[in-house]
Amino acid sequence: MHDLARIFGEVKTPAYVLDVAALKRNLKVIEELRAKTGIKILLATKAFSMFSAFPLLQDYFDGTTASGFYEARLGAEHFGKEVHVYSPAYTDTEMADLLPIADDVYFNSNSQLQKFLPMIHESGRGIKIGLRVNPEFSSVKHEIYNPCSPNSRFGVVKDKLAEIDFSNIDILHFHALCENMAEDSVALIEHVSEVFSDYISKVKAVNFGGGHYITHPDYDLPKLLAALNKFRKKFDVEVILEPGGAVVYNSGYLLASVVDITQNQKQIAILDISATCHMPDVLEMPYRPNIIGAGQA
DSSP character for 133? Predict the structure, then answer.
């Protein structure tokens, strides 16, 4: 705590401060997961885009996954390796910008796939094509973060998969979790294995997305390892995970200064940060951030 106070005293606020030692502890989990399963692991830049830290991460990941052109460009220019990108819908301009830098492009619908398939083939870059599937199965407790909630815009439901020409599909993408523990990761893998086996046999890879809380102290990593190895053995396909928040779980601080203290039935600290600007998930989830040295309000 004394070291933190000294370091924080040297930093001008507001500031995000990365705890490199804590990050490296998380990366050891990534390293074990990769080594014991042989799966491909991508950094979700939507969750962590501090490119100054990318040199610390590059040896642990096979590349990055983006939610649009600018994240894809960030991965291509500052991380290197593979660049995967998914968007619910691409514009003509965005696709033209992505083609020179993306290695894998995931589509959200058959209509988008058919629209842009000629452009991808004409690029001559050998870009792999992914299709996001809505497994209609999720253990996410907060509906705002549940990609499989009723009427979700994300992915093709199973009833519509028969309409798709799988000769053009390399990867099936199932992103259905958000800060979920091992039991939920395994449940998703088993659900996909049982319900989508006919379609998995038509592709070369399956992407189970992000939301696997693998660096949480209560996450049962051996349980996930066993499920992934069982899946790979059954289908003989490449498996991909896209951790984001788990990569930097508990590995940084948001530094703030108390600018003023006012009184309205109790003391109120006025800071040089706000939830809206600096930590919007506090409002969206919602959750209470840990404040060093603070009690419960």
Answer: B
